[in-house]
Amino acid sequence: MFNKLIAKDKSFYKVVALVALPIAAQSLITVGVNMMDTIMVGRVGETELSAVSLANTFINIYHILCMGMSMGASVLVSRYYGMKNQVDMRKSVAIMLRLTISIAALFAIATAIMPERIMQIYTSEDVIIAKGVEYLRWSVVTYFFLGLSLTTTIVLRSVGKAQIPLLTSIAAFFINVGANYAFIFGHLGAPRMGVAGAAVGTLIARLFEFAVIFGYMVIRDGEIHFRLPDLFMKTKDLQHEYLVISIPVLISDGILALGNNSVAMVIGRIGAAFVAANAVTAVVQQMSSVLTQGFSQSGAIITGRTLGEGDREKAQDQGYAFLGVGLLLGLFSAAVIMAISGPVIRSYHLSPETAAIARQLMSAISVIMVFQATNSIMTKGVLRGGGDTKVLMVADNIFLWVAALPLGILAGLVLHLPAFWIYFCLKFDQVLKAIWCVIRLRSGKWIKKIKASTEI
After folding, report:
1. Mind listing the pLDDT tens digit for each residue in 183-211?
2. Is residue 225 included in any domain, yes or no?
């Protein structure tokens, strides 16, 4: 099996890199925005840092749901792109955007009417709740801009249009940093808003991304050729196929988001120092995994195109090659974390207790990333690109809810183990999924047939 992990056709790596690297670069910019937010807010105080971190945990539920909707649509768009079926590409995008807007409205309403309740899910400390509420109230409109720009970005990548989103994200990074500088600290004539200023900076950056990326798709793009009137096009003949592929992804990612929030709830009840340390290490984990995210999405796109061309055997061979890439990226990510953990921790104004916890978490993350990178490229990439979304939905959540969460609760709230072991237990599902992915890939059962609509 080990010889299968290296692609025989060396041009495979060039094709993968051309798709993956722009996606990874954009992910790096996004993580850079998050990192600058935490650094700037961290300079205001650890309480503010904890509040923003926990508030964003709730917002990330919506972010993950958008990823689920768009990755489900990406599977279809990539397959139909391989078939040269532009009509069904537009229908897939129309269904995706309708779902995105509907779910954004639900999150916006919930955030507007009960921000205190949302924060109380994660912590019982009144001062953190108050600061988190302040952040959430400025984030209500952000859901719409975030969702539409994120989902549009992913479907554009499916047809080889990654450059526009990448350049837009680079510009949004500087806009976000400038807005944070102005509104968090009260510079350039702006009011000093603290935590709320971070939310305002994010809102401005998201509005810019939406205007450019969504605007490009509905005005200039010629591959999908989606225009605003297409949002109301008839999609009944494709809805079943979309639901079969996308809803398991949406449910899986949604339940996974709830699971991640349960992890945050456990962390929030261990103590404020653990929460602040986790906020610091989460950014490092995101930064070290940007390559993995790029190659994961390239796995879904390339697998979808290959199967759209009807070459099942080639898709299986590419699956093994992606598995080898995942293992190498995992080892690379672990090395990056260990190399940058010290300087990153020192860049924050952390108490000695929080810094000590952060160092333990960094060590745990470096171990977990080897397994996480391997399974992410398979579950979020190859297997999803093959249409194996129903099985992935079950596997994702069994490992999280049956293994990782119970072990994390036992380690953190019952046994009070060191931070390293608490985090390792909370992320143990990544180890189990990596093993399962190898078994599923070898079976060949992950390749599913996808039908086109009758209107081509």
Report:
1. 988 888 888 888 888 889 989 999 999 99
2. yes
